[in-house]
Amino acid sequence: MTGIASQLNRQEAVGIGLRLAATGLFAAMTLCVRLASFEAPVGQIVFFRAAVALVPIVLYLVWRGQFPEGLKTGNPGGHIKRNLFGCAATFFSFVSLAYLPLALAAALGFLAPLLVVPFAVLFLSERPGAVIVVAALAGFAGVAIMLLPAFEGPALDGGTVIGVAAGLAMAATTAGAKIQIKALTMTDPPGTIAFYFAVVCSVVSLLTWPFGWATPSPSALAYLVGAGLLGGLAHIAMNEAVARAPVSTLAPFEYTAMIWALAFDLLVFGLLPAPISLAGAFVIVAAAAVVAFGDRIFAALRPGERPAS
């Protein structure tokens, strides 16, 4: 029994390491997107992000012995809905990255679980507890705090407003995509889901070509290709992490994304968001953490009560 427990602990440790690696890879991907956005339009960036990601994803499926057999699916309708939400979320995310510092764009990504709260009330007739409701409201207040600098001075900072609006739309569409992914995992392996997302997103983003793509410089082309490779590798690391450790164990490490974003903002661009905007970002992240882990935290604090597994 001790040997089995030790093996499980090692597996979880590897899973946590892979989850941290996935977060770092996603953060590096967003850096490439931000750098590419100085030359290339969003549609072109999305195409490279999706099309180039197919290379590591297909190699991963081959390594797992799931190609091409693993591409069969019994839920094509689910893939269509997931990919529509996912493509929209990707477009909105990259618009947000084009206008905002990485830290603020990353913080807006944590709004997705907060948006699930009003959605659950409106469409599922759920009644979340007071702590969850207060946390969700605090998260939305964090968005307002982030926006304050945009309204200071003689002229409105339209770029910040566009970036935050795109971030809000990204959070909403991400919430929809996550719901569809949850349903798809009941029938299809994660690698298959990632493959079809990359294919559909490539096709959809290719439709933006007639509206004018840039001829990228060698450095911009490297950023475009890098975004695709890093994104594909991040998905693989995420899949392998989930295969080795419970999602509830891995979830807290998602919040290390803020550390990466702040570090890249400082080291690459030599900037940090305004203090008030940074405060709003941390309010959003803290509120998302309460929504995600609040029940377990408060149950653990009550004597004689065990948190739900």
Q: Round the Cα radius of gyration to an integer and report it.
A: 20 Å
Overall number of strands: 0
Based on Cα principal axes, name the global outline.
Answer: globular
Catalogue the unreliable spans.
305-309
Largest sheet: none
Number of helices: 12
Indicate the mean pLDDT: 82
Distance between the termini: 22 Å
Strand percentage lies at under 5%
Indicate the structural class. mainly alpha
> Strand-and-helix sequence, N→C?
HHHHHHHHHHHH
- Residue share in helix: over 70%
Task: Provide a compact summary of the structure.
With 309 residues, this protein is mainly α. The chain has helices at residues 2-36, 42-63, 76-99, 102-109, 112-124, 130-147, 158-184, 190-206, 218-244, 247-250, 257-269, 275-301. Helix 2 (42-63) packs antiparallel against helix 8 and helix 3 (76-99) crosses helix 8.
Any overview of this molecule?
This protein has 309 residues and is mainly alpha-helical. It has a domain at 1-73 and 191-252. The chain is built from 12 helices and no strands. The chain has helices at 2-36, 42-63, 76-99, 102-109, 112-124, 130-147, 158-184, 190-206, 218-244, 247-250, 257-269, 275-301. The longest helix has 35 residues, at 2-36. The radius of gyration is 20 Å and the shape is globular.
Which short descriptors sum up this protein?
mainly alpha, 0% strand, disordered C terminus, 309 residues, 12 helices
Question: What's the structural blueprint in terms of helices and strands?
Answer:
Elements: H1 2-36, H2 42-63, H3 76-99, H4 102-109, H5 112-124, H6 130-147, H7 158-184, H8 190-206, H9 218-244, H10 247-250, H11 257-269, H12 275-301
Helix pairs in contact: 1-9, 1-11, 2-3, 2-8, 2-9, 3-7, 3-8, 4-7, 4-11, 4-12, 5-7, 6-12
